[in-house]
Amino acid sequence: MAVPTILLLVADGRFPAGAHAHSSGLEAAVAAGRVTDLATLDAYLRGRLATAGLVAAAFAAAARRAAGPPRPDQLPLSAADRSPAPPGSDGVHDRRSALALLDAELDARTASPAQRAVSRRQGRALLRAGREIWPAATFDDLPATPGGPHQPLALGLVGAAAGLGPAQVATVAVHATVTGSASAAVRLLGLDPYQVQALLMRLADACDATATRAARAAELPPRRLPAAAAPLADIHAEAHATWEVRLFAS
């Protein structure tokens, strides 16, 4: 089956949401000597997939489900994404309540204040891009939290506006989990970009499996969504936030 062009556009690192400015913790891991070469980058990316990647993808897919069915001109693009919206999510009030609950649950799963701030900063940037590209979409359903919505929730609504389904949104979230750090590794460590790309290709099956698991988890109540944690990543995020000179915002 051909991959829908809209999916590629939303997943593209050049989508105007500021993702290129973030290393997703890799800069601090490199400074700490924990990522030094291709092998340690491989381990780092697999760790992110199992933790931050799974959580972000599940919450993005859940936000997409909470947004309800797409407009008639934006039908889901694959049979796997034709899952119905959860009961009671058709009305604006129910949609906003569901998204507010998801925001609170994701906040509770993000132990590092620095990572919470980064997630909301990226959510604001993604929301701004979504409003410009799809001005008729219901982005106002996102909770008006200080700092903006968490990035996975904004991604869920951008996916709804683009006509993507929950499984496709989960795929975009997982893709971003590994490609951002991989791109940063080329700049931070001077790694061969061809070898880094080959590494990403070897991770493709793991990415697909994580996205599938996340999309299935998104059908559960918010309190039962994945809560995989990476305490060392939290420590790195807090340390990185104190640096006066850094190449990446996170």
UniProtKB/TrEMBL annotation:
<dbReference type="Pfam" id="PF01730">
    <property type="entry name" value="UreF"/>
</dbReference>
<comment type="function">
    <text>Required for maturation of urease via the functional incorporation of the urease nickel metallocenter.</text>
</comment>
<protein>
    <recommendedName>
        <fullName>Urease accessory protein UreF</fullName>
    </recommendedName>
</protein>
<dbReference type="InterPro" id="IPR002639">
    <property type="entry name" value="UreF"/>
</dbReference>
<keyword id="KW-0996">Nickel insertion</keyword>
<keyword id="KW-0143">Chaperone</keyword>
<comment type="similarity">
    <text>Belongs to the UreF family.</text>
</comment>
<keyword id="KW-0963">Cytoplasm</keyword>
<comment type="subunit">
    <text>UreD, UreF and UreG form a complex that acts as a GTP-hydrolysis-dependent molecular chaperone, activating the urease apoprotein by helping to assemble the nickel containing metallocenter of UreC. The UreE protein probably delivers the nickel.</text>
</comment>
<dbReference type="InterPro" id="IPR038277">
    <property type="entry name" value="UreF_sf"/>
</dbReference>
<feature type="region of interest" description="Disordered">
    <location>
        <begin position="67"/>
        <end position="94"/>
    </location>
</feature>
